[in-house]
Amino acid sequence: MREGGDMTSAAEAPVQTEMRDGVGIVALNRPDKFNCLSSVVMAGLDEALAMFEGDRKVRAVLLLARGKHFCTGADLDEVLDARRERGRLEAFITGGHRVLRRLEVSPLPIVAAVNGLCLAGGLELMMACDVVFAGQSAQMGCQHARYGLVPGWGGTQRLARIVGSRRALDLMFSGRWLKVDEALAWGLVNHIVDDSALAGKAEAYCADLAKKNPGGLAAMKQLCRNGLDGSLQEGLDMERSAVVDALMGENVSEGLAAFRERREPLFR
Questions:
Q1: Could you say which of 96, 166, 173, 216 is the most buried, measured as most Cβ atoms within 10 Å of its Cβ?
Q2: pTM, to two decimals
Q3: Reported confidence tier of residue 25, pLDDT bands at 50, 70, 90
Q4: What is the largest CA-CA distance in the chain?
């Protein structure tokens, strides 16, 4: 991997990677298939995240897509082929679960830039990210019910946790698509920007994250994610312990010194 504007993957690779100014960029690159998710794509996402997590220069990750659409779901050709053998189908579903969960538990902030259609498995991929930017023309939906399917990569669980069970069931039952204004109101996306500015705005956000205390951001992400799985008191207990650890760290010393000296902190 190298800094700059050249993609490190070949032009035809289904997942491309780049690093700029502390931001690891991951691009889905199957525009002719609307960036549908195959096992090869999932492996590419897994490899990209592992590479960025192992690079101390990378402080945040931006996930985006080539072409008109972010992602329209799983690769149905592979699903149809895998249905011939239950074990292969289970492996395909399990592999997707593992990669999306890795996005959630990664110490790096994961920001998605969603353009065009974001459907089914694409919606599940988006929901596993931490912050979502969406273009004005983006549309999102869980259309499994239209074709007799069931969300297979965490859709039934993450959607209900983000928007509430009634909205989640309505979206899954109906199979309808949300425009970005409604997705924003529901909490599925954080920021709506002009389509032409989508990648730039999302990358600028990530570049700002790259200037912050990486340990602090990782702690916030872990506490927020894990706290939802237990009671409020359990979450508060986790927070109390993590805050004490953070306050003892060198980066907090740098942050407080920068505050006193009225300058920008330089975090390690």
A1: 96
A2: 0.90
A3: very high
A4: 66
